[in-house]
Amino acid sequence: MRPLILASQSPRRRELLARLGVPFEVRAPGLAEPSPEPPPGRFALLWAEKKARSAWEPGRYALGADTVVALGNRVLGKPQTPAENASYLRFLSGRTHTVYTAACVVDPKGRARTLLAAPRVRFRQLTEEEIRWYVASGEGLDKAGGYGIQEKGMALVERVDGDFYAVVGLPVAGVWEVLKELGYPLLEGA
Length: 190
Hints:
The protein has 190 residues and is an alpha+beta fold. 33% of the residues lie in helices and 24% in strands. α1 links the parallel β1 (4-6) and β2.
């Protein structure tokens, strides 16, 4: 079986697939992704499928994913500057937001299956000193919502209700099920 095509350059998604032992090759989607817009779940589903289809080739499986962070009607993309990152953290401080992570698998015949996870994340009440510390780390600049829960950002989070791995960037259990249903040989050689 040829490796799964991962239509993502996210190191977090690569790490999660590698932990599962799923053979994959990375193929950048090559799409100029617009800023996320409401409704966030629908946006994430649309872009996960666009990414998967952009990397897919006949006879292969492809996986695309997209993550959007929202609190109420406000969608928080990837901050462009440290000042914007700090404003995101102030906005999320002491509040609960939703992380919408969609995934799409395209099978060898070009049929697509999508799924969406929407865990809720509660931030601690952050001090200005904590916000400056986190922003200075630089790790929030390439992440939706301006933080990474799997790195220093774990100190910001009080609680996660739902799929933790969807907050990291890939709803692993759901992707596993979809791959299985579409006939991808996950347990081959087990």
